[in-house]
Amino acid sequence: MIRLTAWVRGRVQGVGFRWWTRARALELGLVGWAANLSDGRVEIVAEGPRESCESLLGLLRSGDTPGRVDVVTQRWSDAKGGLVGFVER
Q1: How confident is the model at residue 26 (pLDDT cuts 50, 70, 90)?
Q2: Cβ pair 81, 47 in contact under 8 A
Q3: Element (H, E) at 57
Q4: For the chain, which terminus, N or C, has the lower number of CB atoms within 10 Å?
């Protein structure tokens, strides 16, 4: 199990981006959250199998998201656990 933390920059607030991310994460069996940041980015924290996290990262970069994604940066770390479901914050 691994933790993916991703920051998505572009036109990603107010366009259903967090809802879309939540739906994709749940399809992949991931737990975590997607939250708007005050600087206009969306932060995504997802935990689960590395392959599933990599799939989510690929979807975020696919160009097939709501709004417009300009840049996705990520950090990998060990899963911390304690998360249930995938929520929009």
Answers
A1: very high
A2: yes
A3: helix 50-60
A4: C
3-state secondary structure of 58: helix
Q: Return the SS3 of 64.
A: coil
pTM: 0.95
In which band, very low, low, confident or very high, does the pLDDT at 76 lie, cut at 50, 70 and 90?
Answer: very high
Percent over 70 (pLDDT), the chain: 100
Overall average pLDDT of the 1-9 stretch: 97
How many alpha carbons lie under 13 Å from residue 19 in its C-beta half-sphere?
Answer: 6
Instruction: Write the secondary structure of the chain as one string of H (helix), E (strand) and C (coil).
Output: CEEEEEEEEEECCCCCHHHHHHHHHHHCCCEEEEEECCCCCEEEEEEECHHHHHHHHHHHCCCCCCCEEEEEEEEEEECCCCCCCEEEC
- DSSP β-ladder status, 68-78 and 86-88: unpaired
